[in-house]
Amino acid sequence: MHKYTVQELNRISAEEFQAAVKIPLVVILDNVRSLYNVGSVFRTSDAYRVEKIFLCGLTSTPPNPEIHKTALGAEFSVEWESAKETIDVVKSLQQQGYIVFAVEQVENSVNLEDLKLDPTKKYAVVMGHEVNGVQQSVVDAADFCLELPQYGTKHSLNVSVTTGIVIWEFFKQLQSVFK
Question: What is the pTM of this model?
Answer without folding.
Answer: 0.96
